[in-house]
Amino acid sequence: MNKVTKYKWKKVLVLGLAKSGVVAASLLHELGAFVTVNDYKPFEENPDAQGLLEQGIKVICGSHPVELLDEGFELIVKNPGIPYTNPIIRRAQELGLPIITEVELAYEITESDIIGITGTNGKTTTTTLIYEMMDKGNKNPLIAGNIGTVASEVAQNATTEDTMVVELSSFQLMGISAFRPHIAIITNLYEAHLDYHSSWGEYIQAKMNITSNQSEEDFLIVNADQDELMSLAKQSIAQIIPFSTKQYVEDGACLMNGSIYFRKEKIINVDEIVLPGVHNLENILAAVAAAKLKGVNNDAIQQVLTTFPGVKHRTQYVAEIQGRRFYNDSKATNILAATSALKAFNDPIILLAGGLDRGNEFDALIPVLKGVRALVLFGETAPKIEKVGKSVGIEKIIHVDNVEEAVPVAYEISEPGDIILLSPACASWDQYKTFEVRGDIFIHAVHKLEESN
């Protein structure tokens, strides 16, 4: 770990805990800063805050009082989930205080190269694929960020022999200053998180921050099938490495004659790849580009792509029962993600969908419901999804109370060769704490059904 001295004796406010705040506070304390932690959760219900207090770190819990800023802080390290509309953050901006997220700390202390992955969709799958390819190729990857361990925790043990593979959200990227990945990836850009970002422009700028400090020695891997993204990429001075499922790209990754190529070199035939879906081909191309730039051999890449079944809760293959294949796509918390999943299959689909009603309609699903043979619906949005299902002529539409009930019902109405797909197109919070809980319940129900057949 690079023992940076810039934080010694500096007064730093860590705003918001969770995993990233705890690691950031402990790290800054170790680096000699005078750290104050402020978290909304009351102290008596806050084991993280209690643990930091035991380390000798000042802790203030229960609210975010603006008056805290009267203590003369020189820096704020903000939990990414806290919006910039928070009164403390607004006041800090008025005062001109620097506001960063912990990924900035990770960059400052790490001895390793960084591959940073962002984008609206596909970040987790792309990050995981890169890690797996580098791991199989003996390139010493360390996975970090949104996908797993906090980046500034992984960075503390990273050496010059390692490469940190870091999934990055727009929330994190808004809080960087010097952060510079050697390889940056932007998988795609779609309208998202506008409840957090003040505008589409702010969201785009947050994503583009991933390349803002790159040099001519660095690489920016971008989706060549998005004209706006390719135009934005011209802002970067890094070497642009495009990937495309629709066109030939000479200095990048693309599909050609049923195979994946990187810089004119054939890597693998598409029909050998286990992971389903056009959207996953985009993720695979981005991952192949990064892996090849890091010197991973084709054998390692092929080994991953012929065995990797998908990230948990993201079009994840679960089981086959009597000719029916079950897929868990609980991470599809919006229409766009569900659309990608539905496009991934050519066989008839029994779709399990529904969840939190955010006020939107589901007409955007109509073009991809053509291959859906039946709907099994649950949650607050079940009536809305039934409406669009009927509009495209789906005759079998069944309402159930929850995901656990949906699995045996879907199996009962299915036929051999069908895909039974959980892709809710909605957040889970009307019934489940997280999409992970929803997906785990689906998996458990499938395995229970498997045991009875």
UniProtKB/TrEMBL annotation:
Cell wall formation. Catalyzes the addition of glutamate to the nucleotide precursor UDP-N-acetylmuramoyl-L-alanine (UMA). SUPFAM superfamilies: MurCD N-terminal domain, MurD-like peptide ligases, catalytic domain, MurD-like peptide ligases, peptide-binding domain. ATP binds at residues 119-125. Keywords: ATP-binding, Cell cycle, Cell division, Cell shape, Cell wall biogenesis/degradation, Cytoplasm, Ligase, Nucleotide-binding, Peptidoglycan synthesis, Signal. GO terms for molecular function: UDP-N-acetylmuramoylalanine-D-glutamate ligase activity. The gene is murD. The lineage of its organism: Bacteria, Bacillati, Bacillota, Bacilli, Bacillales. Pfam families: Mur_ligase_C, Mur_ligase_M, MurD-like_N. This is UDP-N-acetylmuramoylalanine--D-glutamate ligase. Residues 117-291 form the Mur ligase central domain. Residues 313-426 form the Mur ligase C-terminal domain. Its EC number is 6.3.2.9.
